[in-house]
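During the reporting period the student researcher (J.K.) took over the structure-prediction task from the postdoctoral fellow and processed the backlog of single-chain submissions. One of the processed entries is reproduced below for the supervisory committee.
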Amino acid sequence: MRNPDLEVDSDNLAWWNRPENRRRGFRNLYRLNRRGLVLRSGSVLPLEERPDSRIASRPDVRELTGQPSFCAMVVVQGDGILFEAHAADCGPDTLHSMQSITKTHLNLIYGRLVADGLIDLGSKAEEWIPEVGSGYRGVTVQQVLDMAVDLAFDEDYAAPWNPPPGPGERRGYGQEEVAMGWRLPPPGVDEVGVRAFALTLERADAAGSHTRYASPNSDLAGWIAERASGTDLRRLVAANVEAARLDGAFFVSLDRDFVPVLSGGGAMTARDMARHGLLFAQADNAFVEETRRRRGTCFRDAWQGLRYSNQMFTDGTWVGHGGYAGQFLMVRPDKEAVVAWFSVVETLHGGDDGHMAQVVAMASAILEDL
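J.K. obtained the following structure tokens:
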């Protein structure tokens, strides 16, 4: 019998990610994943409760924290917690899936690589990964970090996954989830890891400077970072955890080759996600400042008006990242302030553009008013 939690039904979703199970799934991914790495910090960043009544009294805060999708929200400035709220089923110690907010680990890793002179972001992917497939040949590391690669891949949670696409056909997120270990492959199909999957991707025809969001770019970026640093990716992630001085555990999925799934495999508490966010508010972080100021690629559709730069979202003022089904991290480096948000949208494929627009607007306004 195959693992029912990871089995895929006719709706193209693994059992844990079906709408009726998703809320439980997001709080238990660290139990449901087949492989994972747990990291703890050697010291903890103390945070003092300094409630700011202006935040609690905001209509947008009251509305969003009162919705059924809400899980947790923490606002931190410096070493003070200005606001904190949790749903009944998501307490202060709950490890909640960060989804694609996990990608922000790569910004920290590349910041160190650039500062240490270990990588030129204008270098080509094949200089670091000679075995790279046709989809990434001729592509610079900067293009990979900015989601500026024209791949025959769709970050589409409804994309068919069985039968797997053949040569020359577009890949979809279902195949990425198999590589992440988040769902079982179709019966009779071999499981591959995230790096092997990235090697199968081919180029597509696209034009313009818009964001071509694809999680395999983050998988490849982690691989390049490992080659450039000469250090196992697990140790690079561990350095981030030590620097953030988390209070609880950081969990990250591992693929079949025991590679950290930085494209979306992280889980931590809301308070610790705020601590993680404070790393991007350090005064001497030149790479974050470059991330915030440079143009990167431009989002269209739901995220129109935002840019994607060095594995981060930015509007030129804040940096952060969104996550599937209702997660967001937003940081104002100039104010040393962070909003960490967890929710679980229970639409069929986890999307609700209106909800996320409200969350982004609320977080931006809170940080602006501090």
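The committee noted the following: The first strand starts at residue 36 and ends at 39.
J.K. will present the remaining backlog at the next meeting.
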